[in-house]
Predict the structure.
Amino acid sequence: MSLNAVIRWLKPREMVFFDLLDEAAANVLASAQLFDQGLRSGDSSTWADLRREMKDLEHKGDELTHDILDRLNLTFVTPLEREDIMELAHALDDVVDKLDAVAERFVLYRIESVLPSALELSNLAVEGAVEVVVLIRSLRTMSDGKEISRRIRHVHTLENKADSVYHTALAQIFEDPKDPILLIKWKEILDILEQATDDIKRVAQVVGSTMMKNA
């Protein structure tokens, strides 16, 4: 057992859940930033490296999610409702899973260049992930409700922008489909990227409902 694992078991159980959720949120931000940087390089020769690094973060997210769920099964009293902790754990993990899935498809589909719309969606995912870190951290004290509400609204705004970018991108790629196969590849990639922003919004929604329950 690692030193960090020992420290977690020694801490009060309610604090452990906050620590694990903080780690999961930090992993979301690290994944979004790595993914965004990889796409902005524009170098298709680096997709395989990006895929490997994203897979490492995806595995870390899975481990954190499993740790949270295992501890829920062992803990009688939790600091937040079990359903909320589970939903947060899954939603955070889903964001990383989506970004990892796109990185994987860049390799499998041999994507040579990145659409500007994909870069826009990637940037929005990073902005949302920054907010997610703050929102998850706020669950420890649930103070400054106005600031938290502002950040939740910002996440919703980002998700609305992502929807707009996504639909505009679909219209563009279907307008003059010179390569139907490439069109299908990009539609799937854009679908998954948009879903990642949906999952970020899901995290914000759960934080908001949790704050209301504990107000």
